[in-house]
Amino acid sequence: MLKNKNILATICLSFGLSFLSASAMAQNAETLIADARAVLGNIRSITYSGSARNVAFQQCGASAVSLICNDTHNPMRPITDYVSVIDLGAPAMRHTGATMNIGSGGSTAVSAGTFFQQVTSEQADLSESWANSLELYITPWGFLKGAAENGATSNRRTLNGNSYRVLSWSPEVKAPSGASYVVNGYLNDDNLVEHVETWVGDNIMGDMHILASYDGWRDFGGFLAPTQISQTRGGWPFFEVDITAADANMRNVASMLPAPESSGRGFGGGGPVNVTPERLGDGFYRLNSGPGSYDSLIVEFEDHIMMLEAGASHAVIAAYIEEAKRLIPGKPIRYIMNTHPHSDHTAGLPVVVAEGATIITQANNQEFFERALNTPRTLLDDALARNPQKVWVEAVDTKAVYTDGNRTVEMYHIYPAPHSNGLMVAYIPREKVLFQGDFSLPAPGGVGNDHVQALVPALEKLGVTDFERYINVHASAEPQTKAMLWDAVGK
Prior knowledge:
By secondary structure, the chain is of the alpha+beta class. About 25% of the residues lie in helices and about 35% in strands. α1 (about 1-40) runs antiparallel to α3 (about 140-150). It is elongated, with a radius of gyration of 27 Å.
């Protein structure tokens, strides 16, 4: 009986210590949140302005300095007259500015444009999409609001060699995998939020790490705001701000955040994918999915299949894989060639990688793909998350030839060219086919844009001129030829 009493006392003591520890952590977090809010001025709303830079993710943007993409997210696109408004009561956020838009289809023509992003009150609901609301909650003010209302806990951690008090909390909404999202805020010894991080599932970046850093805090008249903001996604630069002015507790904050004309946006689709194959030769097919198709080619080798390009979406590429297996039964897809790493041309890569395929890409893209597609996918529920694979990348410098002695595919780096420094084309000599990603031809009789103008001299320098069929990933209404390409550049 005494033994049982001792066991019971031990259990009670253990439970009591755990309860006290959790209670102390919660109490410590509450105090830390209150102190951090007080340091910032206990504001209800804030607006700040200056200049900024951003990118279209996995691409570089129009730059006043350079129109040529030099690297992943380099150069960034300048934003002038940048203004951000945050209303913690709504809650809502909007930031705007003047920027530049670059022409479609590889054009280097630049026109004035508007930068505009917002988190509406509906999107800020933490039971809704985390991807839509996180821009508000990774700001220092939004983070502390979320921490106060969502049972934050606190601990000590080291980041970049510095020790911080860290507040952690989770939104109500769950990831597609069922896992909880986590957001951490790193507070220095002055109770200033220096960093906020979270993760969100991304098609290519997996559990994509988002890190927002806030530096150069200063007093703007009774409240503090940073003078520099930088945000990385997946470890790559994504958004930067230099703040020169700020105001708080604005009387007209509601008018500064008017309701949007329309809320939400979607990509549509979701119906069945109808694949139309075109036979180009023995064991050689073009796969098309209808209007707006991102085409792929499949090539039969002695003991495997090579697929050229995996764009559009998971659904399209899954349908292409099924069709490839029907057309060429009994052989695995060993390789997937990528023309360049822009998001619309990589959308289906995880599906092919889940099949065990090796990615063939230009050498400038190797680090990006190896880092991105080997990141854990615990937040996702897709083919690669369900069938994790070590992702292998074969890099092409200037030229690579894949052959089994019967079938041959040649791949070439096209440089210099606008749009990307990692562009490749594929040449299939037997059928004299050139396959490319974004060198879209103009209407008959039209003049090719700067992207097309760059392609022809590159092909001539490489000695790749003996082709007849010109196939674009972005499907053309009618078959295109070398003669049409040459005509577009005045040859």
